[in-house]
Structure prediction request, 322 residues.
Amino acid sequence: TTVCTQSREQKKIIMKFLKETGCGDVIDNGLHLFKLHDFGFRGVSSTESAAIGGAAHLVNFLGTDNMAALMFVKDHYHETITGFSIPASEHSTMTSWGREHEVDAMRNMLEKYPKGIVACVSDSYDIYQACEKYWGTELKAMIEARDGVLVVRPDSGELPGIVLDVLEKLEGKFGSSMTSTGHKLLPPCIRVIQGDGIDIKSLDMILIAMTEAGWAADNLAFGSGGALLQKLHRDTQKCAFKCSYVCVNGVGVDVVKDPITDPGKKSKKGRLTLECKDGKWETVTEGNGEASLDKLVTVFKNGELCSDVQFKDIRERSNVGF
Prediction:
């Protein structure tokens, strides 16, 4: 629940900046669903954690490198294909060529994947040399001639400065155009992905800095790993299960926790319903709700599955309000 909620909030932030910087067409074409990529499999405590958290992220986005999540959704929510990825290098596939042959490793990526989107980590030694000398000079003609997009990945450096630096270095070699709002946009053949240090706060910070520096949000995609799937706990969104009602000898009893030392830990009391009135969600307590308006459904009861939910229905519900 918390992973899904934070992922959805990041989706709202990304969409906001796309609209404000003249990139509404990205949303119209559904490409905003690839703006936050799940890098989290290796950074979590278990394959189960990767599967459950990754599936939660897939409610909101389509980009993932998390195979466990894809299999989880296929097995339990009846959706054959819920996420996609692209060819992408990582540091060992670049550094195994040696420092003196880094440009050859980069050229190899372009040759092996002559069409479509391909991402290449570019900070193994010198990100600025990679942007200006390799991508922007020696390999520039190949990039511009490709039927696709090269996505340059810095993976170190202070945020948000490194993102702005990379955009400026690439603009110096490839040029830029202006969106309808007057923000700079790199040519369609080249983009950037920031996958180091990304959580909901840094994502927002980077997009603010880009906007203030005159850059359109569509220049950048994000990858998030441990911060997406594991940099959270039950208090992140105050997500906890508490008893609210019991039946003792046939008599109903409302149950509530209300510690004097922390009013924020007060629990909800009595029989509960979750209702949506005038677009606002409300938990009605103490049995005062209307059963006909209750959106809560029983999913499991005594070990039996009572509601076989489809993943597409969860996605549709998550899109309400966008």
Q: What stands out?
A: The radius of gyration is 23 Å. The mean pLDDT is 96. The chain is about 35% helix and 15% strand. The first strand starts at residue 36 and ends at 38.
